[in-house]
Design goal:
The protein has two helices and eight strands, in the order H-H-E-E-E-E-E-E-E-E. The protein folds into two domains: 33 residues; 104 residues, RuvBL1 DNA/RNA binding domain (OB fold (Dihydrolipoamide Acetyltransferase, E2P), Beta Barrel). The termini are far apart. The longest helix has 29 residues. By secondary structure, the chain is of the alpha+beta class. Strand 5 and strand 6 form a beta hairpin. Keywords: Membrane, Transmembrane, Transmembrane helix.
Length: 180
């Protein structure tokens, strides 16, 4: 067998293998979804962008429905009642401006394990804050200044959730010091 015949047979075998590889590659590419606009040289336009679709959580759906109901006047009032109970770890009655231009009148720190969780009552809420002391079935009015670190308290805060402004959304606040 001559060398030229052997080279011709090897060439044909390599050509057949290459054709099969190209066919396999093209069949695999046809099965993949095509993404456009992903090459650095491609220009990205509105119609060929691919955006991931996030499934909204039930809370997001509810919030979106709430906005629509408020916008069209269906939802007339929405009040949220927060009730906090715990031991006072800190009290700040001096009032300051904190994040987002929020000016508070009262900042209570409730002890939660080794942490202190702050609860704010806005400056505009000052007129609705009621403070009382409870001893059994007897309650007596007291002042904010009567509260001390270590007191066991219950804070009930009503918020107008439609106002959207934390500076004015406290519509009622009641702090009860418990005599344990």
């Amino acid at each position: 067998m001559s060398a030229s015949k052997i080279l011709t047979i090897l060439f044909v075998i390599l050509l057949v293998v290459t054709i099969f590889e190209v066919g396999y590659y093209l069949s695999q590419q046809a099965q993949k979804p095509q993404l456009t606009g992903t090459s650095p040289t491609d220009t990205v336009s509105e119609e060929n962008q691919v955006f991931p679709t996030a499934i909204p959580t039930p809370a997001e759906v509810e919030e979106d429905d709430r906005r629509k109901m408020t916008k069209y006047g269906v939802l007339k009032s929405s009040v949220n009642l927060d009730t906090f109970e715990g031991i006072l770890a800190s009290i700040d009655l001096n009032g300051k401006v904190v994040e987002y231009n929020y000016e508070y009148r009262v900042k209570l720190g409730l002890k939660v394990g080794n942490d202190v969780i702050p609860i704010y009552l806005s400056k505009n809420a000052e007129s609705v804050i009621k403070v009382k002391q409870s001893a059994g079935s007897v309650t007596t009015p007291i002042t904010l200044e009567d509260l001390k670190v270590g007191d066991h308290i219950i804070l009930e805060r009503k918020l107008d959730t439609l106002s959207g402004d934390p500076k004015i959304n406290v519509i009622d606040a009641q702090i009860t010091r418990l005599n344990d």
